[in-house]
Amino acid sequence: MTSIAVTTWSLEQTAPTDLLPAVAPDGDVRVVRSEVPSPEFSRFLYASVGGDILWTDRLGWPYARWVEHLERPGVETWVAYDRGTPAGYVELEAQDDAVVEIVYFGLLPSFRGRRIGGHLLSYGTARAWDLADRWAGLAPTKRVWLHTCSKDGEHAMDNYLRRGFKLFDTKVEEEAEAAVPGPWPGAFLV
């Protein structure tokens, strides 16, 4: 089996004022919180957004694991819709010490390049900063962080930097090369 070198960059914001919002895209693009935990919908988003960029860690999760994860306090899914069609999502997760991680963020392939990503990242980051307002018992957010890697979309890092995230760690590791799973077997990828 062959391996590839994968670079992972960790980025953070340490104050709400670090956020540099993107201009909202033209048209009817809305970002809405998915308030009802739905393993089916969350798995659809995960597989559809990450299918061409090697998101594989959750593909084997059984239904019960999805339920357990989505029902945790401080886990939120925010979905961008373009004229009523899901275009992408951002998943937030509260962590210890008033930290919120942007665990997943991205767009379905056919919605990339339409200026939706910057808007969705801006909106999701703002929701990370005010997460405690929606969850009793959570302390106000002191830090928002995320990671991206060399397998992610070509514009991911630039988007994070333009939104005010600062690099705080870089790691390079060898990973087994895997086939691109796609959103579903045989799907056409744009």
UniProtKB/TrEMBL annotation:
Annotated Gene3D superfamilies: 3.40.630.30
Alphabetized GO MF terms: acyltransferase activity, transferring groups other than amino-acyl groups
Domain annotation N-acetyltransferase: ranges: 29-190
Entry annotated with the keyword Phosphoprotein: no
CDD domains linked to this entry: NAT_SF
InterPro entries cross-referenced by the UniProt entry: Acyl_CoA_acyltransferase, GNAT_dom
Keywords: Transferase
Transferase is among the record's keywords: yes
Pfam families per record: Acetyltransf_1
Segment forming the signal sequence: none
Protein name as annotated: GNAT superfamily N-acetyltransferase
